[in-house]
Amino acid sequence: MDKILVTGGLGFIGSHTVVELQNEGFEVVVIDDLSNSSIDVLSGITSITGKSPVFEILDLKDIQKVQGFFKNHQDIKGVIHFAASKAVGESVQNPLKYYENNLNTLVYVLQELSVLPTSNFIFSSSCTVYGQADVMPITENAPVKSAESPYGNTKQIGEEIIQDTCNVVPNLKAISLRYFNPIGAHPTAKIGELPIGVPQNLVPFITQTAAGLRDCLSVFGDDYPTPDGTCIRDYIHVVDLAKAHVVALQRLLSGNNEANYETFNVGTGVGSSVLEVIQSFERVSGLSLNYKIAPRREGDVIQAYANTTKANNVLGWKAQSTLDDAMKSAWLWEKQIRNL
Ligand code: WQD
């Protein structure tokens, strides 16, 4: 089967995608610099699929290392590019780290792909590119608004770099997947999200509060113009999201793409408020979560959920899991890593 490179393959979404690629019979090579992941994830992947991906620790910011890698792997048929920094708040404090780590690395990988006889590239993008979209649910034609953070800007610029490259490199085909909010963990609880330090995202903060690592969840604002006053997002199970990458890759490998560069929103199409996520957690765990209403968080959009028509009808992928399924898997994972 085709050999696929997964950069950032030991990360949250990357590791779940490696599992789904192996399940489909692909030969997988993982690159990760371990800056935001653990080598233990490799054994988690292997214990799920029974196969160990080839792994190379490599910093994609080092152009010589990138060139050396591709010299040794001329038979790569596709690349799924997750490797990037992704903390919105940190990107505001340290923009140059984000522009270097998220964009230089993308350019170096694309430079190598541009000289291969054929190459298929899947890019990890984000609904962040839409900012606060005017119309819900959000379609791929929604205007890309000026980014609210350097992180979001790196996703917008990244998409433009790929589009411009596909316009002039005939053998390069690419798809950007614009994720909504990935949550949950593999049902085996052998891999999942491993936030370093205090979680910035809602779901790991919920599970860590329930596990006793955090005293109380702060709900950032309940005075938004939404039914219950809290922000609305499209929370998608990470396994559903991982499967979308395999479908997108297969679309390119089989030549079914309609253009050299395509974008797809990857969400459930269902908007859930912060309070609804808390209620979902309480339903699936049987616990009562300790939370309080706190001031709004700077930069939060009021609501963002996907119009999934294009993903469902053109890409041929549809999310299968519910919010409860995802919250149940997140809690199972938290209990597993905390030995609860
Ligand atoms: C969700 C909702 C918060 C924490 C971010 C990135 C996005 C993507 C996913 C990378 C919001 C509320 C959160 C908390 C809370 N990451 N919240 N208390 O901000 O929608 O998206 O992560 O691609 O690019 O922007 O996700 O989980 O941080 O927040 O009330 O302790 O939960 O205000 O309404 P977000 P999130």
List the main descriptive attributes of the protein structure presented here.
Rossmann fold, globular, UDP-galactose 4-epimerase, domain 1, seven-stranded parallel sheet, 2 domains, binds UDP-4-deoxy-4-formamido-beta-L-arabinopyranose, alpha/beta, three-stranded mixed sheet, 340 residues
Briefly characterize the structure:
The protein is α/β, with parallel strands linked by helices and 340 residues long.
Q: Mind explaining what this structure looks like?
A:
Strand 1, helix 1 and strand 2 (27-32) form a beta-alpha-beta unit. The chain has 11 helices and 14 strands. By secondary structure, it is of the alpha/beta class. Helices cover 40% and strands 19% of the residues. It binds UDP-4-deoxy-4-formamido-beta-L-arabinopyranose. UDP-4-deoxy-4-formamido-beta-L-arabinopyranose binds next to helix 7 and strand 8. The site of UDP-4-deoxy-4-formamido-beta-L-arabinopyranose has 19 residues, from helix 7 and strand 8.
Give the SSE layout.
Layout: E1 3-7, H1 12-23, E2 27-32, H2 40-49, E3 54-57, H3 63-72, E4 76-81, H4 88-93, H5 95-113, E5 119-126, H6 150-168, E6 172-179, E7 181-183, H7 202-210, E8 217-220, E9 232-233, E10 235-237, H8 238-253, E11 261-266, E12 272-273, H9 274-285, E13 291-294, E14 303-304, H10 309-315, H11 323-337
Parallel strand pairs: 1-2, 1-4, 2-3, 4-5, 5-6, 6-11, 7-10, 8-13, 9-14
Antiparallel strand pairs: 9-12
UDP-4-deoxy-4-formamido-beta-L-arabinopyranose binds at residues 86, 88, 126, 128, 179, 181, 200-202, 205, 217-220, 231, 233, 274, 297, 300.
